[in-house]
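Recall from the previous lesson that a structure prediction takes nothing but the amino acid sequence as input. Here we apply that procedure to Hydrophobic seed protein domain-containing protein from Linum tenue. The sequence below is the only information supplied.
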Amino acid sequence: MFSYSTTATTCDPANLGVCVDLLEYLLKIRIGAQPASEPCCSFINGVADLDAALCVCAALKTSTLGLGGLINGLNINLALTVLLNKCDHSVPLGFVCAY
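The prediction returns the following tokens.
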């Protein structure tokens, strides 16, 4: 008899609050030195592109990222794409983050 376990890497949208500075910079809301991407990207590294897209989308929709009125139906997918690209992920073909 034997057993094994696997550790699945998951993304928790609640952890993505650390992405605010990076996302604001990438969307040109802030001017100055680019914030480090590691704190933000570390929460979605190791997950599949679809899982990362779902996680970031959920964070954007629930205002976890604290961007309030800056994120709306028109630019939520732009924010999603910019953040995923910065973290070496791609938005899956046909994926839309509905607001």
